[in-house]
Amino acid sequence: MSGAEPAQPLVLIVSGPSGSGKSTLVQRILELPGFLPSVSCTTRPPRKTEAAGKWYNFVSEAEFRRMVARGEFLEYAHVFGKNWYGTPLKSLDEARKKKEALVLEIDVQGALQAKKKLQQAVAIFVLPPSREDLERRIRERGQDSEDEIHRRLERARQEILNYSVYDFVVINDDLERAGREVQAIALGSRCRVPQEEPRIHEILKTFGG
Predict the structure, then answer these.
(1) Beta-bridge partner residues of 89
(2) Within a domain: residue 49?
(3) Which residues does 133 contact at the CB level (< 8 Å), separation at least 6?
(4) Range of the domain at 124
(5) Is residue 132 in a domain?
(6) In the chain, how many domains are there?
(7) What ranges in the chain are assigned the alpha helix state H?
(8) Are 171 and 129 in contact, with CB atoms under 8 Å apart?
(9) DSSP 8-state secondary structure symbol assigned to residue 128
(10) More exposed terminus of the chain, fewer Cβ within 10 Å: N or C?
């Protein structure tokens, strides 16, 4: 209906292979006013530096499955055959109430699900400059065995094949430049017609309709 509130807030989906640097680039987006991070649910245990409710809500696998059964997720995925991750639908409600854009940092499998359900969402693919660079980053974290490293690299290759589903790609070979690019995408996305339609209608009223 003309002048109605948008059915959903602006949603930015940021994803890419593990180790591509998407978390750092999401932080750059969140430096901008009016952008809200989505708090995901996961069955993995928290790391020493993580507090519940900031980036993740940590739940048991049984509770996660109950949430799936109740239809509480926008998207969810079983990552590397280990832990479950999901984006609660209530994140959309919170962003709508606050009139802010919602930023989702999710893996490629989850991004494909979210993009199907939220066709107006803006999807950004963070791409490492090369396989060698990605392998170096994964090794520097010191968290994975040799087998796990090879699995992650093969998964990255498969994920990159989905690039055409995304609206934008940011090649993260220079953090400062990549940070400026994701901020530009975020700001530009807020100016799209579907997002500004309610304000357009209000301005039209000042011209007599």
Answers:
(1) none
(2) no
(3) 173
(4) 11-38+100-206
(5) yes
(6) 1
(7) 22-30, 61-69, 90-98, 108-117, 131-141, 146-160, 175-189, 193-206
(8) yes
(9) -
(10) N
DSSP 105-121: E--HHHHHHHHHH-TT-
The number of beta carbons lying within 10 Å of the beta carbon of residue 102 is 25
Q: Tell me the helix, strand and coil percentages in the chain, rounded to 5.
A: 45, 20, 35
Spell out the per-residue pLDDT of the chain, length 209, in tens: 444 554 579 999 999 998 899 999 999 999 999 999 999 999 988 877 666 667 789 999 999 999 999 999 999 988 777 889 999 999 999 999 999 999 999 988 889 999 999 989 999 999 999 999 999 988 988 878 899 899 999 999 999 999 999 999 999 999 999 999 999 999 999 998 888 888 888 999 999 86
Of the chain, the end-to-end C-alpha distance in Å amounts to 14
Helix (H, G, I), strand (E, B) or coil at 7: coil
Both tokens assigned to 30: 């969140």
DSSP tally for the chain: helices H, then strands E: 8, 9
Are residues 105 and 87 in contact, defined by beta-carbon separation less than 8 angstroms?
A: no
Please report whether residue 79 resides in a domain.
no
- CATH number where 112 lies: 3.40.50.300
Helix (H, G, I), strand (E, B) or coil at 130: coil
Structure tokens that stand for 169 in this block: 């790609």
Q: How far apart are CA 197 and CA 55, in angstroms?
A: 31
pTM of the model: 0.86
